[in-house]
Amino acid sequence: MIVPLDLRQASPAVNTARSNLIAVASGKGGVGKTWFSITLSHALARAGKRTLLFDGDLGLANVDVQLGMAPRRDLGTFLAGQTTLGEAAMQYPAGGFDIIAGRSGTGSLAQVAPSRLAALRSDLQILATQYDYVIMDMGAGIERTVRSFTAQAKTCFVVTTDEPTAITDAYAFIKVTTMERPQADLRIVVNMASSVREGERTYAILLKACREFLKIEPELGGIIRRDPHVRESIRKQSSLLTRYPNSEAAVDMQAVVARLQSSN
Question: 116-137 burial string, b = 16+ CB within 10 Å, else e?
Fold first, then answer.
């Protein structure tokens, strides 16, 4: 586990996006965003990168649930002023990465006092200096708080599926983000694709809309094929790369990581 920092005495807040902060967002829930965040963190750790997974979906946090963890300290204790953000980080030994868990059922980040949110953003940027990558699993939707945290990241994976509502909501997220940050590095991930070809078709639909109406061309972050091993690993509360490291979805995630590292 990392050595806790007294972040209040560390460097001041950094307003520019950090290159090692990666946001994972989606227009709607149910597209596998949290699973993607967990598996991406594990894949980066397996690649030898010091990785922190930050569960930013406070009201519906479930990173710890998916991994069968019961943290004593989490994002809720930080927001309550009971711990520092560094103290809230805990190891996930089976994956070789650290986690700052959220706290389910406590309301969304939008309900947190602005001063605490500002402290959280600042402290997260400082804590990120101890890692090669910080993966931020953000809440679904396009609310202001989600966008403000996403703005800290150099890269944002926008996760969607082939469902029309998922595509529409992913486009809405891309549109709002682009209006606020025209140079944002947005990458589309098609999850639960029936095949690579179908995943490419879904990406093409989103890409066409972005070209025609937003005049941008977000690149393809990756295609994750539908794999029964994913559901099984979630049911067993373990990471896919621990239980089924050679499954189709695991291979696809390794490709996502290879593409990410080659672009950095």
Answer: ebebbbbbbbbbbeebbbbbbb
